[in-house]
Fold these 4 entries.
Entry 1:
Amino acid sequence: MNTAISLDIAHQYWPISGGFRISRGQKTAAETIVVTLQSHGHSGRGECVPYARYGESIDSVCSQIETLRGPLQNGLTREQLQKILPAGAARNAIDCAFWDLEAQILQKPVWELAALEPPIEQVTAFTLSISNPDQMAMAAQRATDYPVLKVKLAGDQDDILRIKAICSARPNAQLILDGNEGFCAESLQTLCDKIQGLNIAAIEQPLPADIDDELSDIDTEFILCADESLHTSDDLAHIARMYQMINIKLDKTGGLTEALRLHQQANKFDLQIMVGCMVSTSLSMLPALLLANSAKLVDLDGPLLLAKDHDKGLQYRGAIITAKPSHLWGYPRRRSE
């Protein structure tokens, strides 16, 4: 596609049901940026979530996107976008909007344009935010429809109590333990030693990204998954020395285009795949869902954490993400939608 494209940028606010806490802090709403690209009567949209961990804010990401208004009007393509903006939230929103716009113009679903298999039903993990052990155990009991629980950890001495309380409440549940960079090597080793024999699918990003090398000293058989340490395919050679799994999030890769490249390259390094998300709406989940068919773990529960999602968003049956086409993103739709 090489044609004049108009740009619209919208800041949206989505309250979180009950709040959400990780090791870096708490939030009560998901603030997203939605990009709409229009050309020849068709429109495509994409959503991103600016993340302060990477130096992003609503204002900075909107400003990044705004710099492309002229280039888009002059015929910027999705391929050219990859070189103009760095990986991150701004590029993600524009890249996903490009894919959706192409689906409308060519009247083909994105999965077909990307030469992928059509989406199939997936089981998503459900996230438990940090609280005291008893409250997290009760939250796990309420989430009986979810066989996989993503457990946010604080990196403190209560984490072992949290994990054991959840396992007691839900003995058949598989757990993803997410440290969000909250541990040091010593506390991680202690954790691993204390939770031997529990049903742990992976331990995600336990150490700060800048001390990943210390993972080589950890004695554990648990699968270690890179999140904050991983952005694009350029990171894989380093990641593969310490981790056995990677968490692909489009807000880190800078969109579906690089995420597809990352997914393909990860196989060459024998890295297992988790497909993850920020706390956001179905407009963010739908592009990520295209990566899920060959993923070991799927963590696309963002809309389930919100008080309300888009009316035409993904459909969930408990932990099951249905494979029904959504006209919110990625499938041909009427021009009025």
Entry 2:
Amino acid sequence: MLFSSVVFFYFMLLFFPLYFLTKGKSRLWVCLIGSYIFYGWWDYRFIALILALTLINYLCGLKLSSSASGREKSTYLWVSIISSLGILGVFKYFNFFTENLILLLSAFGVNEDYTTLNIILPVGISFYTFQAMSYTIDIYKGRTPHEESLLRFATFVAFFPQLVAGPIIRASTFIPQLKSDRVVKTEDIINGLHLVIWGYFLKVAIADSLSIVVDGRFDNPASHNALSMLTGIIFYAFQIYGDFAGYSLIAIGIAKMLGFQFPQNFNRPYFSRNLSEFWQRWHISLSSWLRDYLYIPLGGNRRGRARTSINLMATMLLGGFWHGSSWNFIIWGGLHGTYLSIQGKLGKVADALPMLEHLRSNRFYGYAADTIKVFFCFSLVCIAWVFFRAETLSDSLAIIGKLFYLDDYQFSGVTQKFHVIKGVILIAFLLICEGISFIIDIDQIKKNSPYLSLLFSAFIIVLISLFGTFDSNAFIYFQF
């Protein structure tokens, strides 16, 4: 079920009254059954999959809490991890490994008949697998207690707002909120509604409008000049941001309207001055998950520069592979691993240059330097996005190669000019709004001037009606 579909509107018309008319276990049952209906609307067969993951990790959590020996605890932890990753691997990566094994064997002259499976990738499996798996890891590490109630734990795993595309919520954050009926205040409903409206603007007005240009460029890169391709790359950066940040805001907003507090998942990432800052602002729930459950256990930055670079690369490669079973996603992760490794070395060199000390104290230099850093960081991110979006590696290289044809930047050769101009206006509006939020405390304005906040949301609704593309486009991250 899509947030941007008509059926979701009817779903919420039914869900909200049932939620607020019930209490205690009855309310949890409403959340759980509603979440399974939401998830099963796409394909009811995959409800069995989420049930299996729920039971495995719930039982492993109970065993972890009752086990006396460290070896026994390790056993149940690995049962949870292997089972969860095994299910994810079969559905998401089986064909990838099979196809690459065939290519490897054929390179050595072994030509056997192998077949791949016609496996449908369950929506959101990467998200709820990581969410369930982090629960048992946290119990093992002593970060969170086990949950006795299967109903409560099942609701934690399947809660519909963030089920299929995040944010990835930790058990220590969400399960305590499920232990009592949430008291929903009027300001929670209003603030949640503001988030939902802004999320729909990001999705329907920005992401779906930009997708018209992006699809035309990436589906047939040979038919576009360099400037046309450059607009496609930049537009994709904002398309995936609007699409994913929009979904996250809708999810967080709906949760807030139900009385739950979910952490922020995006924080103006394209204003980042370096790649470390970018990953502190982009898909925060995933980047923090990778940091806490992969990067730090590998050693983090505690074992010297060389080991830090290896840990960064391993984390980002696996982060790329998490997104999809394609070499393009691995290259995307590898690029970010390379960026982060080089950034650390360049930063130490720059700090050691005495000639920069005077310039650093100059306010104008600070603004200019930050602007250059933001532009450079955004450019590197866009290069990586090419591999993320393009269908094949050869397409990715062809698209990047086209950008170096410096005599091919004529505006007359840009196709879909109306949609390009519309996209530029929408992106400029987004950047202005996010830039202003660095100067003005938006949350304080919401508290002090609720009518002004309502007026702005009404204005955004008008913009959605004027600029929105209403064809129920699926969210990009549904396929991950």
Entry 3:
Amino acid sequence: MSSQKTIASLSLDLDNRWSYLKTHGDPGWQSLPSYLDVTVPRVLEFLAARDLRITFFVVGRDAAEKKNHASIKAIAGAGHEIGNHSFSHDPWLNLYDQEKVEAEIAAAEEQIASLTGQRPVGFRGPGYSFSETTLRVLERRGYLYDASTFPTFFGPLARFYYFLNSNLTRKDLKQRRLLFGSAANGFRPLKPYRWTNIGGLLEIPVTTMPLFRAPIHFSYVLYLSTFSVHLALAYFRTAMALCRMTGVSPSLLLHPLDFLGEDDNVGLEFFPAMRLPSARKMDLVSKVLELCSAQLHFVPLKEHAQNVAKGLQTAEVTLYSHRTLPGK
């Protein structure tokens, strides 16, 4: 690695087909339809070709299903970090009490550790859900970091788009009211920080565009590409320039649907850019990563967190109060 490069992290939320259907309120999710046998080999081949090790946030229920065992074992076998993405993938995890949160995190830990031999040290809440209760449980269970915050003003707009054609009841919508976060999340820090008064658990936010706080993870860039590839790449290039200007070491986010297209017949048309062919999507993801290659050295989130922790006596880690946490 060149000494000129900045440490950055790359992660993938391994949300399965059933979890998208569940969140969207569509029927059939209870049978746990899966596309992991298709998308995981595709992602692993893509990463291996670029010599990238990243973090996969795995859902405990998927780790518990025999049909997914080969796929998830292959992730660990390729040297990637396995993070905890809860057991049931309920984006309303922030509404749960301590007992239920503990059960969600512990059950996922057990399934992941049993299958892969890795006990997770990092957590990301489904749908970026987090609460003081969740953070306290993670701290008590010895987690190194949380990566659930999504510092953007665009959460309500993303939520509106996601549920535009759903059949959710008013009760369901209320339950999902903080999916992707509130607009107030746009004021949260972009740089890693400690949750004060919660034992100092380290937070690694999902990076959004500095100053504007617009989402920049790959699903959004792919959506922009449906209007113009040049626009999408210019948007991401601007975000990376602003990260350099403001001293933000990016933590970038992938999803399985960034590698699946209309030719894979998985449905889920409500998700951005699902009408694009998979080859076109993967080509754009590759181009986006190439834009970073000269300045950034991508590592799993665990390594990113460890690197941040070494600099605790510097101003790079911001102490941040928990008083504005949801779900207290």
Entry 4:
Amino acid sequence: MSQELPIYIIGALLPLVTTNIAHMVLVKRNAWSTLAIPIYEKAFGANKTWRGVVFISTVNAVLFLLINHPGGVLMSFLNQKQNLFQLLFIGWIFGMAYVLFELPNSFIKRRMGIAPGASANRWRGLFTLLDKTDSALGVSLIFYFIHDVSSLDAIFFFLIASGLHSLFSWILYLRNIKKSF
């Protein structure tokens, strides 16, 4: 593991965690309600909306820039090769990967007759695992392709991303911001 890896991991995950907490608060308060239109309700259910796509990708792009630009929150000079637009784009890609990699799981659940936001009765453990790892897989793949890291480092990133997703989902559930874990 290189010395830069922890900074790259924090730089990728801190904006995503912050963005997703803000998104859950946004949903709870029904803010940006004009964008609360299902992407394709028949395929993904009513909970996968354009609000999530727009909010997560846009806010993550801005937070990624603020955290990762040279001299930013991380005081990192690791990203000096990238200009502000490139950093915004990378943050946007991380946000889009997060959103897009949730869709196959939702699609499978809708085909199985599981209501949006409901837990599966059949294969409950598998779907709980998928719920906590689908978006982590997406951002891990982006992380792997953006940074010159080994497969083992990418797996490490995936495990951290999945763990953080689970932790913050549990906290948001306990705080009554999310309806289910």
